[in-house]
Amino acid sequence: MTVRLGAATVLDDVDLTVGAGERVALAGASGAGKSTLLGVVNGTVPPSGGSVRVLGADPAALRGAALRRLRARVGTVHQHLELAGALRVVHEVNAGRLGSWPALRAAWSLVRPQGVADVVAALEQVGLADRVFDRTDALSGGQRQRVAVARVLVQRPDLVLADEPASALDPVLTERVLGLLAGPADRGGALLAALHDPALALRHCDRVVGLAAGRVVLDAPAAALTVADLAALYGTAA
Amino acid sequence: MAGRRALRSGSPVVPLLPRRAFLAGLTLATLTTGAASACGRSSPVGREAAGPGSLSVGAIPDQDPEVLQRLYGTVADSLSAALDLDVAYTPVTDYGAAVSLFRTGDLDLVWFGGLTGVQARLQTPGATTIAQRDVDADFHSVFVVQSATGLAASDDLRPLAGLRFTYGAETSTSGRLMPAWFLQQAGVDPQGFPGGPAFSGSHDATLQLVASGSYQAGVLNEQVWAARTAEGAVDPSVVAYARTPGYPDYHWLLGPRAADLAGPLRDFFTGLRADDPADAAVLDLFGAGSFVPARASDYDRIEQIGRELGLVT
Amino acid sequence: MTALLARPAAAVPRLRRDRRRWAWGLAALAAVCWSATGALDGVNPAGAAQFGAFAAAALSPALDGAFLGVLATAALVTVAYAVLGTALAVLLGALGAVAAARSTWGRRRLGRLATRGVLAVPRGLHEAVWGLLLVNVLGLDPWVGVLAIGLPYGAVTATVFGALLDEVPRGPYEALRAAGAGRLAAALYGLLPRAAGGLLSYACYRLECAVRSAVVLGLVGAGGLGYQLSLSFGSLRWPQVWSAVYALALLCLAADVAGRAVRRRLAAPRRRAGVLSRDRVLTAAVLGTLVAGAWSWWFLALSPASLVSARAREQAGFVLRAAWPPSADGDLLRSVAAAAVVTVQTSVLAVVLAAVGAVLVAGVAARPAGRCSPLRRLAGVLVRLGLLLLRAVPAPVWALVLLFVLLPGVLPGAVALGVYTLGVLGRLAAEAVEEADAGPRAALTALGAHPAGGWLYGVAPLVAGPVLAYALYRWEVTVRDTLLVGLLGAGGLGALLASELAAFDWPAVATVLTATVVLTLAVDLVGDRARRALR
């Protein structure tokens, strides 16, 4: 997977390949370009130059159903979650399956929720099973973040992109959620996660890519790095 | 709603007007207002300056307003020439408005139907009945039906009871009052048509609605029916069904403000001669051979029927 | 982590629905079904020819110089009515706001309730009804148009201004009072500056509405564009009708665009730090309105004397004496009840038609945020133009035209109002879509959702609330408009009022008017409660 970019301000000439089974942490100060990089991969940010290959395909060359099939294999926990809010939790989680559901089934599911057992199982894993029929906007920030994770779980993607997926969670849940998001990588997929917490990045990922001002300034196996190495990326002494 | 949204967003203080601009605007406003009051401009919607020597003529809008405009334009010119008055025609949108404006004194001389004339006279003390046409003492209405109903012309009104039916204006004498009365005499409930009777607003509108099939039957002024038939303007799917017996209808009514003109006006109308080309133009437009003097008592029967049907109170 | 895993699998909870919302939802469904039973009379294909003649004339409006001249004068009259009506409304609103504000009364709830009650009466009657009543008192006088807009609008404006004043923080006012300032001075320096933006913005919105109301007043005979429209309609001259409709559309568009521009500026003023700068657009708008007011006064040749003339007093006395006491006749009350049912049914159907239509067109009508194909852009422009045309044609005109193709009953009125309301609601829904957060939908697209699915899960939930709230608010407006449509030919309370007015049965008129005010109040109350349940 190659990302080559010429976007003048945010990402500059980034070249990055993530291999099968890899768990990669993106590190860097706020504004370094982590979210933009993830956006380029999942297609929400159009690159101004260069080429992107996702799961062996070029999204720019695909249209319609074929593009949707490719996108269904990429799951994202967005930094701002991007939940509609005015829906019940079950629908927000089910939205993860919209890539494989035809439109009519999607519409009917709003009336009679489909695949509730899977949704409850996913919510169970993030400790929210009892809130399955609550309105999402009635949940706390941390609970909403777990709903977004459950959405990725029911999507069953090959590539997981996560942008600070545990920023609002307590340490126990943080461990748990990162473990869940690494699941696809363990089965031959990949995880690319933007993580602020150096210790977390080293504990859960095999490799760390450091960004600063839109450029790759660090790319090394996690085993070869210390918390202090990463802290330097943020301009602070460990 | 958009306004409400703007409100909710809690917009901060609006910059106030520059004082000089504000003062200039204010001065301009004062000046123009002053000028307006000073020169006594006549309003584009109000009545013409109503003074002695002026007469405001109106009519119930019983047919095409364009035709009325032409008709009463001619009458106004003719009156103006004969009586040496400022005569202006003011169109109104419905029958009730003609009555109200007669009462408020905005209209001095109005061509009323039988019923509206009675309403206007009862509400306006000092109103004088001036004249009617030769045809008005014995006026008729025509019931028309959609040819799709398969009804053949007949004197029996009872088959109409099951049809969707439209009258003309609510207080039209020939389009509502008398037909309703004759229906009642024939044993048909004049309000009992399926879905209730409709009021098309005018004789021409009745023809259009019956032609479209929205209504299966209707009733209109015989004179309009004859005129439209002669012009070939009637849709072939509308056919005459029955003709009512005669009754008194249209007449000129004069308001109290111009009461001293009663004599001259009566003389003017009854003096119109078919052999004089200028007079004939007016008579032609009214579809009359001549005008004859009329008295309030000529319409006693209309008043009584109006009371029975709840249209005069 | 182990502790979490050790927990037994939770049983799937039952789907619990919010009872209050469900009650409202079921009630709404029942109301719609009940209303639909009133409209089972169907269509009349035979009338398609007449309707076709009307529609075909859209492409060949009357363009002869004389008629266009008449239209231009008529448009000026309409504008003058709107401007002066709004000016009067703002004046009344400013005076009434103090009486309507919660802060004026403090704990004395009775006083506030009494004011609200007094304000509810002028608000409960449609502008056209005011127009008809005023014609009976003032005759042919331009005051009829000005008062018919100014009185009901004044009452609404007073309520809204009062609420705005209540929202302003009281700190500065209290501080000034504590420093010894008088009530008026304290209000001028402590309250007014904070509320000014909101007040001006609302006044501007009222002016936009007033243009539409002035048109409608013409339909009942008060002069202006509506009057020309109704004359042309009476003679079934479709090309002229369309010329008038296009003139209306232009006028409404101008009011729309100008009003929105000014209100946007008010919501987000541009200013430079440290410089006492004034927004040129706003200054021009306020000055222009002042000049327009002065010009309108001159153009209509308004004379305050005619309001208090002997004739006006005499006629007012006549009408009031004749109308008191209102009729309590059993037959009349029964027909009032039946007519009220028809009115409610018509309005419910109209709003449902409009809401469904608005949801369907909102996506296309909204201006797309990012890049899009020229075809999509063209479709958007066409739909927005169509919506403008729908709301430019007054509902009564739609009703009269639809009588050719729909059998008489609830349906023509409902479809006419529905079509008109769609014009309004469609735009509001499109705006809601434009303003909705684009993130959720983009996220769904990123995970491969079908566009329809993305819309259902990413856009619809965000806009459903506001659109439903708008629809309820429009329902309150539609009930008033149903009266107007009835007044000009369709059924319901309006038709009953028209026939009592035609018979000059003033006691019955008083009864029908009372029923109208009560009905509109009841509908406002229900709408308000339902909207609160939505929140």
Automatic annotation (TrEMBL), chain A:
Keyword ATP-binding: yes
Domain of life: Bacteria
ABC transporter domain sequence ranges: 3-238
Gene Ontology molecular-function annotations: ATP binding; ATP hydrolysis activity; transmembrane transporter activity
GO CC, alphabetical: plasma membrane
Pfam families listed in its UniProt record: ABC_tran
Keywords: ATP-binding, Nucleotide-binding
Protein name: Phosphonate transport system ATP-binding protein
Organism of provenance: Geodermatophilus dictyosporus
TrEMBL record, chain B:
Gene3D superfamilies: Periplasmic binding protein-like II (3.40.190.10)
InterPro entries: ABC_peri_PhnD-like (IPR030836), PhnD (IPR005770), TAT_signal (IPR006311)
Keywords assigned by UniProt, alphabetized: Signal
PROSITE patterns: TAT
GO biological process: transmembrane transport
GO CC field: ATP-binding cassette (ABC) transporter complex
NCBIfam families (alphabetical): 3A0109s03R, ABC_peri_selen
Family: Belongs to the phosphate/phosphite/phosphonate binding protein family.
Protein name: Phosphonate transport system substrate-binding protein
Organism name: Geodermatophilus dictyosporus
TrEMBL record, chain C:
Topology within the bilayer: Multi-pass membrane protein
GO cellular component: plasma membrane
Pfam families, per the entry: BPD_transp_1
Transmembrane segments: 79-101, 143-165, 209-229, 241-259, 280-300, 336-364, 385-407, 454-473, 482-502, 508-527
InterPro entries listed in its UniProt record: MetI-like, MetI-like_sf
Domain ABC transmembrane type-1 residues, every copy: 75-263, 340-527
GO terms for biological process, alphabetical: transmembrane transport
Keywords, sorted A to Z: Cell membrane, Membrane, Transmembrane, Transmembrane helix, Transport
Subcellular location: Cell membrane
Tree of life domain: Bacteria
Keyword Transmembrane helix: yes
SUPFAM superfamilies recorded: MetI-like
Family per record: Belongs to the binding-protein-dependent transport system permease family.
The protein's name: Phosphonate transport system permease protein
Organism, scientific name: Geodermatophilus dictyosporus
